[in-house]
């Protein structure tokens, strides 16, 4: 009897525990909450007003903005107005001060986003006493911690009636799901570390110190400061002026390079072609074809003012150093500014700060301690060799800009194998140069190779060897952010062969504009995939994914590509990829009203997301589900989200197969 009573208490405690825990176990996430007001709240007829959308974003999440190229990949925030009544739209949706990031690894372009809070504004003009603004917002939030991406969408209404003004109806409010905590996993931070960029810029400044144009300025600096009586104070001021001059140009760029301008620089063909030409021009100059020099009259005029001494003389001495060294530092400083212009507002300033500090600190020390100059290695052929190496690197980087324009505008000038062939040729020539097999116009007499040069030449040879398999379809994951996508490569060897051949004709629904990665064959419609899985007697692998899902691409690139995972996906499962952010509008006879939120689902993405929420109580991507297509029951095993551990994913797939065979 006591055991029965004890069992009752245990069951009661367990029930209470599950009741309390159930919201945490649920997977529906709302990491960003929208609200809206009208300014002014009661506009008169003929007056313009602004709908102000405020978005409160959970800590550790970010929301994509509305002002970048919609074809880039991430989901661009949109606001759609339905059936305007008593008002007119004035202009388009405007994002207020979003952050900006140039992403090389996944998107090859610049996107804008908000953290913590976001704001969008839409102007309207009131044309009647009774007016009503009704529509829907559509956005996407992603987590820095778990890597999940979640569609955030819903309806809004603002009307002249006080009861409907500024808030959703009670019925609509009930349709918004509550948010839950997100377990931390690996981080994918949307904002590139400014510290990281600072050190990259400083490295470029250190390289600039090794160029032939800079070396002769050292004795000039020492000679100038031996005549000054300001001591260390003027020397520190000299270094500060060098930094300020460079940072001034970075600040100018930051002032003009807002989010829209950065997006233009990143994705439009005009700046990318311009950068391509500039880098080729600088690179050929570094190889010794010609010298880039400023007008001598300008340099001499500034240099003459440096003879005045004192603070003014120190400033013009610093200005002289910047101008005289321009022919060598210009390409490096320009590269930093080009990279910085595709980032946040502060990035050009940080870039020039790092570059100029590396440049200014040694000259400050020479100004303080002239004896340092005696310990420097003598100038010679080694300086020209450094310049030539930089020339090859500039030319290689130039093709990255051309590649961006090529991908955005689908010119197909630099498909993957062509890009790789060019890089193999460039770095192959650099390797031959470093080993002394070829020489250039300004090279001195060749002698024995130094140990550093030999080691660097060997590293370049290894890089060329690494690139060559890419011509035959190797993924080259270490360069995934630099190379054109695998889909642009015509020849992939045998890496794309798979054993699953959906349908007798090989044609699948939506296969004309959607594709699976890594040469995998599968479906993009659940019912079609389910029918085929029953036919061939295999479990179903459902990939809830998205075009703008960064961690979906990470999983495909680093986990799915592993031979142990790829083999299982190819041979043991029927794959269906359901894109939850695809904007393809379906035929009207396929539209339906969702039982989850009461909204009409018109697009492929909306219907896939609605299926994910209603069937699996999840709205985040990536989300992987293993099903027995013969039954409509629960998943074979607990679904998983982003997890970069290959062994975990292999165990997940193996467990699903075992469970399928037991059913």
UniProtKB/TrEMBL annotation:
Residues 45-156 form the Thiol:disulfide interchange protein DsbD N-terminal domain. Residues 195-402 form the Cytochrome C biogenesis protein transmembrane domain. Its main location: membrane. It is found in: Membrane. It is a multi-pass membrane protein. Coiled coil: none annotated. Keywords: Cytochrome c-type biogenesis, Membrane, Transmembrane, Transmembrane helix. The chain crosses the membrane at residues 194-215, 235-257, 269-290, 311-337, 349-369, 389-412, 418-435, 455-476. It comes from the Bacteria. InterPro entries: Cyt_c_assmbl_TM_dom, DsbDN, Thioredoxin-like_sf. This is Cytochrome c biogenesis protein CcdA. It comes from Aquirufa aurantiipilula.
